Amino acid sequence: MLKNIFYFIIFSVGVLCASCAKHPSKVEIMRQEKQQKDSIAYVQARQNLTYSDSVLQVLLPQTEPLLKKFVYSKDEKAEDHGHYVHRLLQTTSNTTRNFIQAYVSDNRVASIQSYYYGAKPHHQQSLRLSIDEGYIEKQGSNHAFQLEGWHEILTIDHEDAIELLAYIYNHVGARVRVSSIGQQSVVYYLSTTEQQALADTYQLAVLMRDIDALERAIHVSNLQIQKYEKKHADCK
Question: What is the model's pLDDT at position 90?
Answer without folding.
Answer: 82
